[in-house]
Amino acid sequence: MPALRLFLLAASALSVLAWAAPSASAQEYVLGLSVPLSGQTAFIGESALKAIRLKVEQINEGGGVHGHKIRLDAQDDKCDPTTGVNIAQRFVNDDNVVGMLGPFCSAVSIAVKPIFARAKMVDLTIASTSDAITKDTNWSFQIAAPDGVYARTLANYAADHGKRIAVLNDTSAFGLGAYTTIENTLKERKANVVAHEQITAGQPDVSPQVIKFKQADADFVIALVLGGDAAKLCLTSRDLGFKAQLAGQTAWSFPNVLALAKGACDGAIFTDPFDPAKPEAQAFLDQYEKRWNDRPQSYFAAAGWDAITLWKTAAEKAVDSSGKVDQQKLLGALNDVKGYRGAMGVGNATINFSATNHVALGVEGTHLRRISGDKLVAVDEVKK
What we know:
Rossmann fold; three-stranded parallel sheet; 12 strands
């Protein structure tokens, strides 16, 4: 990356962090945010932070929460669990912090989960997709759909559209867990699976697996691989003349994957909890574009928007007689959320939390989108 771009990225991150004042006044509610703003995953946090900033501006212009303005304390966790733990400890030890949004990366969310549970502080994770985020805790919520939901969405679509299905997974916790869900769903759907191969995450060559899929005459490949491995599969398939429909998880649409694939992932489809054509999403994107002169294609900004909107609505019901946000009441108010239609989700799907369900979106709230050049389009849209 050219030095100028590095300088501009660093300056952008610093300006975002500088937006939060160093100390809270008695009339402010401090909202903590753990977000990746540097490193390879900075693109995940940048658009979401802008969405959250925009919503904070609107809330404050409207009088705040029971007269208390919100001050956002955004901290760069770098998508690193150790850094995330340090940030979480700082937030729970600060009496001025009344709410917590993030982290965005699953490894960080899992690492900080016990910290918030011990402190009995509500945590609204934003882009973390691991199925473990909300397990064994009453205090963590998940705005992004979990990996198991994405896996079922992929399997159902493959069963409907693939005549000869192949499955590729890596041997990470993600790959093995998602494969179990895929396998069970395809069996339930009585789908025709002609091949299954595994790779080690980061292995240099996936040609043997692609050749086996080609020999099996597979026309649809469910690929439970991420990052460079996704790009590698696209490139190898193109080089070997393997023309099956490739389908993967949301991470396939990330800029780093598309840059590595150099156009080879064009036409691939991926699971997504975001439909920019949905009226609620369009309304959000219009406000975002007006404020930031940008219109994000991925779901991160929408997830940030919904997270802070849900927090604000719940916080209004959780302020005690002393003016503090009572975390137990905040938890109860979030558990009572029913029928929320936000920027996230597809179709008529709504967010419905309860004391036993802290996952915002299920299969009905996700769909497939297609990579088409530098655009992310509806799966049935004609490729330009």
